[in-house]
Amino acid sequence: MAFKNRYYGTKKVEFEGITFDSAPEVQRYQVLREAQKRGLISDLRLQVVFTLIPRQTEAVEVKLKTKTKIVEKFCEHPLTYAADFVYIKDGKEVVEDVKGFSTEDYVIRRKLMRYFGHPIHEVFDPSDGYEDIATSLGFRKKAPKKKSSKKKSTEKKDAFEAPGLFD
Known about the structure:
The protein is α+β, with helices and mostly antiparallel strands. 20% of the residues lie in helices and 38% in strands. It has helices spanning 23-37, 104-115, 131-136, and strands at residues 2-5, 11-15, 18-20, 42-53, 56-63, 68-76, 79-89, 92-98, 120-123. The strands form three sheets. A four-stranded mixed β-sheet has the order 4-7-8-9. The model is unreliable at 1-6 and 154-167 (pLDDT under 50).
């Protein structure tokens, strides 16, 4: 089942009762699930949330009728990062994100994750590292795009010399 387009033209996809952010993410899940069945990885988890900067509060004095009380006032929401997949491979934790492209917001979170000791393995091809599994599941690699055979004009026209502009 596919849902409506979202921010960057991706469609949420439902697979086996789980909602994923994109079709490549579903394919990667299938590959990782099969890798786990084969014993290549373990402890596969989805949408694991990491808190990069905790919720910000400040102490404020509040005057009540009979006394003054100090309370915590909310200032900022926490900064979090939700990894698409987290699993154990060769005894090490792998944090993985399926990407079509990187946004500025993601780049900041990626840098913070690396700083705190959780570098993100970015996956642009769902079969990355497990090509044999992807092939057995029936996934094909996309053929590279062919370059257009149309020749581009090398002449630059000055806007003031273009015909019809000031006629």
